[in-house]
Structure formats: C-alpha cells, structure tokens
Amino acid sequence: MTRQKISQRKAGRAEEDEDWWKFTFEIVHNTRMSQDPPPEKEPAAEEPSKAKSRKTAEAEPRHAPELLTQVASLPALPGVYRYFDVQEQVLYVGKAISLKKRVSSYFQKDHGGTRIGHMVSKIARMETTVVRSEAEALLLENNLIKTLKPKYNILFRDDKSYPYLKVTHASTNAPVQSSGHASAAQVSRIVYYRGAVDKRHHYFGPYPSVWAVREAIQLLQKVFRLRTCEDTVFNNRTRPCLLFQIKRCSGPCVGQISAPDYQRDVDSAMRMLKGETQEVMAAIEARMMAHADKLEFEQAAELRNQMSALSKVLHQQAVDTVGDQDVDILAVKVQGGKACVNLAMVRGGRHLGDRPYFPVHVDQDEPADVLEAFISQHYLEVPVPPTLITSHAVDKMLVEALTEQTGVRINALHQPREQRRVWLEMAQQNADIQLARLLAEEGSQQARTRALAEALDMAVDDLEQLRVECFDISHTAGEATQASCVVYHHHKMQSAEYRRYNIDGITGGDDYAAMRQVLMRRYSKLAESVRAGEGKLPDLVLIDGGKGQVSMAREVFESLGLDLSRIVGVEKGEGRKVGLEELVFADGREKVYLGKDSAALMLVAQIRDEAHRFAITGMRAARAKVRVGGSKLEDIPGVGPKKRAKLLQRFGGARGVADASVQDLCTVEGISEELAQTIYNALR
After folding, report:
1. Which structural domain, as residue segments, surrounds residue 85?
2. What is the pLDDT of residues 185-222, one digit of tens each?
3. How far apart are CA 465 and CA 448, in angstroms?
C-alpha cells in the first residue's frame, strides 16, 4: 500500500466518520453451549457409507442453535472476535477483514482432531467488536492478546527492555561554569539507555543487546572522542581525566576543545549512526584540506588521525556494511511443539547481532503463523524498520495493516539475494541452534525432575505438576533479617511466584525463630484451605539448613496438621563443599547422600542456590535502606521509585543527594525547581 493510497483512505475515512458512528457497534453474544440431544437408537445394520457419514457428523462439534444463529448474522465488516468456553475462560482472540466470513469458517469446516478442532469444540459463546479498518483490528487484537493471554493464541513475552544509544541535547542557553568552561548542559553526552523516550534527546537503536550498545559507544569514542561521564563529574573537573590522556575524549570539561568544534563532532557521530559514513568521511577530508591550505598543520593532522581511525573502523565493519540502512531479519524454526523466532538487526548499515524469542502455546502451528504472530505483536511496541527480511512468506494484508498503523512504509522480502541472503542464512542458523539448545535444556531439566521424584520416592502422577518450595534466611549480624520463598514448577523456576518476608519480633540472628515465623505465615492459611478442599500444598518443601532448621519446620507442620514427609532439609557437607550436601527428613528417615553427579542433587542445589540469591539480594536492599536513609526520599511527595533511583544514581547515594544544592537537583531528569526545593528542605 503506497503512502498516496493511505492518504486517500484517510481522507475518505474522514468523510465517512459521521455516518460511520451511526452503525459502529459491539456485538456481545452471551450464549452458552446447550446439552447435546440424546443419541437415537442405532439401526441393526447400516451401509458402510452411511455409517461413515454418521460417524463424521457425530464427531463434529455441536453448538447451541442461538450461537450459530448469531454467527450467521454477523456483518461483513472488519473487526475482532473472542471465543469463550463454559468456564468463561478466553480461548482465542482473532481479527478479520470480514467478521462474517472469518467467524463462519470456524463452524462450517471440519477441523478434525487438530488444535483448531479442539478449540472449536469448546466454544460456548463469543464476543465481537466492529472497527473501521484492518489496522485498528490489528491494534485491538494484540492489545487483547496481551491482556487476556488466550489459551490457543501464540503468545510472545512482552519485552520492552531494548537498549538504545542516547545522545543528550546540548542547550546553548545554559550558563557556563564559574571557571568559564562549558557546563554539562552545553555539551552532549553519549550513553547507554533504557526506558521512556525524552523528545529533547536523540536515540539510536534499538540494539539487540547491551554489548552492541557499548561496542557502538567505544567506536564513537575512538573516532570522535565524545564524553560519557556523568554531568556532576563533568561540572567538577579541574583537569582532564584518563580518557583524555588515552585519546578517548576531547576534554570539553576543561576547555581542551571549543563548544562549536565539539558539537561538530557530535553531529558527525550522529550522521555515522544513521549510516552516512561516506558523507562524514568527505566532510572531515574537506575540513582537513582547508586547514592545510591555511598552513594550520596541527589541526589538519588531528583531522587526518580522525579519518584514519574512522577508515580503520569502516574496514573492520566492511563484512557487515552494505547499502541497507535499517533492516530486521526474521527467521523461525518450529520443532517438538516449541518455536524460536530469531531477530537480527541492521542499523545504519551495520549488523548489530541477533536476539531469540520463544513463544508459548505453539503446538501444530506452521512457521508462517508463528512469524506473523511475532510481527503483529512485536512491532506495535518497538519501532519498525522500513525493510523486513523473513524466512517464510507473510500475509501482505498484515504488512499493509502494520504500515497503516505505524506510518512507516514497510517492505517484506521472503527470498532475498546477495548480502541479504547471507544475513537470512545466518539468522536461520542461529534460530536452529537456539531452539536445539532450548529443547536440550528442557529435556535435561525434565530428567532432573524425574530423578528427584525417584530419589525421594515421591508418588507424583504428572511430573509437570510437581511443585517445590524452598526457604532461606538471610541477615547481616542480625540486621535486616529477611526470609525468601522460591517456587519450582513445570520443570523451571517460577519467579513470578517468589515471595520475601520481613522478619520482626525475634532476637537478631535467631535463624530458627525466623524459619518458624516464615513457615507459619506461609502455610497457616493454606492449611485451612486444604482442609476445606480448596487449596493444594507443595509436593516438597526444601529448607536450607540441617537438623535444627528441619526441627523448626517439623514443629510448624505438626501444629498445622500437615504431612511431615513433605519437609526436606539441605544440609551442607564436610567443609561446606558443593556436591557433598545431604538431605535431612522431618519424618524420621535417615539422611540421604545422593552423590556428587546425581541429577536429583543438581536440581536441589539449583533451587537452594536460587532461594539463597533471592534472600540475600532482598536483605542487602533492606539493609541499605536502613543505613543510608533511602526511605526518606520516597516519603517526599512527588518522589517515587523512578525519581529516587535517578537521584541516587546521579549523586552516588542518599548522602550525596542530601549534600546537593537546589541547582544540582534540578539537573536530574524529571526534577523540577519546585520539587528540587522540596527535596532540599526535606533532607535538612
């Protein structure tokens, strides 16, 4: 779809808006699946053809007549549809150019025993929403997918953590330093960045990894010698730093370069990041020749060295650099009920690396379906480049809808040539490798789960449902005691279910009392739910400790009337060496040593170490909050976690914030003069 067609469509849409809203509506069908009628008595003899047709008819899913009537009455307009089962769980969310044709196809075709067939057989009711265009349908569909997480949709993890290279804005109106040198506000800075975009600054990316951003920063330091230091460091320099000595910075903090010359280097760096490398080289060469004509040989030599450094960088990147500016390469691999979409990025003509994505709810889906799901979900959150190179052909209507939604003319290539083909082959190979690694890891993890169940004689019907909870206590000389609980389920750690508990009312350093308190808080209400037939206890409760810790756990479980066989302590071996741990049981069984190379012990150690890590990070954060008074900042109206983090990062801690002036506080992003005065007064 060309931009001209898009503008024509938008113009036509504006003319039709008044009439449109007269018939835009949302159809919500709250019909439930009716009971199947009793089967008729089968005749004694039946022809094979009739028997086959009868069996096929019986195999087809049956739905309430009201639901089928509503399907038949759907309009031939673009929109989004949602299917629900009898438990009101969302089964599937989809979009359509024509709701009537698309939704009817689910109920008219025989899907057999496929994944779609299973879904259709469970549909009890549906909801539909009419929209004005396929682009609006695409946006609404993916918003609903991310919100509702339907069982039969291919889901990609919502990832908004792409890193960028940020070039800060240089303000010409900012005051100079007392020394007469330019202030930090007048001198642009290059920095690695994640987070919300501020329109005052320039952002380049996204980059696939932190490493790629840092490599770009090092490249710019070598060629253009741009500063990377914090503003507070910049404003307090009295002599050049080490980066100036090793020719990685031009020293604008102490006047080693004029503000216009530095800004010229910043502009050249940004042009290079945009892929205009030859133009940058030509501009530097012209400046060098101009200085040479004026017999200013020292300045000409500096520019010659800059050209030499840039030429060396371009030579190193020659394999990756082609005429394309911004390109994304997408390769997909589906195997064993799993899928991997490998995204490789080219920005400014340079190949920056790749990043794998592993969707869920992939069963019998085709690679093209997985790829289209990724494109529709990913590029509504991340800027889309003008060129996409894909391992499988994607629907042209999807590309046109994405073009209309993002405002970027997108060209999707399926069978590229020359360098683009090399990029696609590399991306496909990486997708194959990443998926093979995932399958191997999952197979290994399942083997560990099975080994643990066998080693402890656990009667578990489905290893997928085996649930392990592990507890650990952490403190420093009794200060800021915290307990952690981590969860292992579905053959992997479930970080969303982790919990920390602040321990109060005990003698500092009393780990036994801390363990008693956390277990009572964790399982007292759960025990009541279990007795009421509503809750479910974990299959295994791991305690990081020996007999003393296990005895505390046994007392808690006995008081709550819970099964003692679920409690297992992980006791450190001789010399606290890894691999010599022994398992201590609360129900009186003898200690068990699983062996240094036991898969079961590896899983126990993995869960125990994760509990220890989670506990110690929480304890350190709580201790730092108590010691440096970080909580005082959060108590100030208008200062939330994000602004608090920026303040602590800028001034090196709470004491640095307390010592800062109002003017210094105003230099922090998001801190107004009024809020800076409030912070200044609150900390004094």
Report:
1. 25-34+58-152
2. 889 999 988 877 788 888 887 787 788 888 888 888 88
3. 14
